[in-house]
Amino acid sequence: GIETTKVSHQWIQKCNEMDKVIFVSSHSKNVFDNTEYQVKNEQTGEQFILRSQVPTEFVNYPVKTFSDLPDLDLEIDSDFNFLTVAQFGPRKNLQNTIKWFVEENMDQEVGLVLKTSIKNNSYVDREHMEQLVRSCVPDIPERKCKVYLLHGDLSDEEMHMLYKHKSIHAIVSLTHGEGFGLPLFEAAYCGLPVLATDWSGHLDFLYKPTKNKKGKTKVKPHFARVEYDLRPVQPSAVWDGVIQKDSLWAFAQQGSYKMKLREVYKDYNRFKLQAKKLKTWINKEFDQEKQLNLFNNIVFPWLSLNDELDLVEFG
Q1: Which residue numbers in the chain have pLDDT < 70?
Q2: Is the dihedral of CA 149, 135, 87, 192 positive or negative?
Q3: Which residues lie below 8 Å from residue 311, measured CB to CB, with a gap of 6+?
């Protein structure tokens, strides 16, 4: 996946050696298709435009299904709780997610559950995370809201139970950009209301086709949209060959985030109903067999998964 507005020239060069490139979201595909570089042949002096020269497609991730989910014993005593799931790095914007949450809810019995780590699930990482999270929490006397750190390895089943836990009411993300956004996707198809930056890969599953009163179908957002500004990536986030210095990504607006937190908390039933409709649509459109068929038809357009194949052994 590509999380910014520009892909590195190394990726374009290598991908142009392929027959076809398949992405995990329309965002990643579009960025790759639209990136261009003015380059010069050092031997001949010839100048030319470096761009994608191969066919590109995208296929999203499929929904996961489980027959049984384990219990999760979470010691959460807040009346209403938001969840965020992300590695603690520059792209996920967790510092502002925490700070602005506390400023908005300092007088409310509301919690923010952070499922996060820096590098791994070790004790050293947990201790470092505790210090880091504390440094992000504003010093506000007698604040009522709480921030919880959930650290450690969880199985797929336990993660999906977390999305469905009775103490968790919505998931939030102020991400600067996503190639797809798996935690948001998993939370959405589990029926959890989503509050997120209105940009990049996760829009593939957070915008749902909806018919209006006249019978016309329009694609509409089914999540709490946080407004943003596209600005250059921070110097600390630059990763040569991966995150370009001259690329942009989304910076969530503080006021919009706080307003959406308030709306989801105060008008929860509306967002829960919206999430229920989104869940039904995602589980149908992103069904595993359907996504596998899409992928198969892109790789082997002449072959159907339903075709019976005769295996011939050559001695």
Answers
A1: 304-315
A2: positive
A3: none
